[in-house]
Amino acid sequence: MPKFKCKDTGMKCNFEVKDDNQEELLTIMNIHAEKTHNVKEPTMWEKFKTAIKK
Ligand SMILES: [Zn+2]
After folding, report:
1. Which candidate, 16, 21, 28, 39, has a CA 20 to 30 Å from the CA of 7?
2. Which domain holds residue 19?
3. Distance of alpha carbon 1 from alpha carbon 46, whole angstroms
């Protein structure tokens, strides 16, 4: 199952999410990234996406 750990992006954050549905995973991550880390730039968002483990 694809999973994402926020600390893998280098953040001091314990947020984790796993979801079989990639679309859903990205949506949850996107909300977290924007709300918690104020992520707006695509380069920063790329970093989040590359931290997804299959
Ligand atoms: Zn986080």
Report:
1. 21
2. 3-53
3. 20
Q: Which long-range contacts (CB under 8 A, 24 or more apart) does 32-41 make?
A: 32/6, 37/11, 37/13
The rounded Å distance from CA 4 to ligand 1 centre is 10
The count of domains in the chain is 1
Section 44-49 average pLDDT: 95
**Mean pLDDT over each residue of the chain, to the nearest integer:** 96
Q: Model pTM?
A: 0.91
38 CA to centre of ligand 1 in angstroms: 10
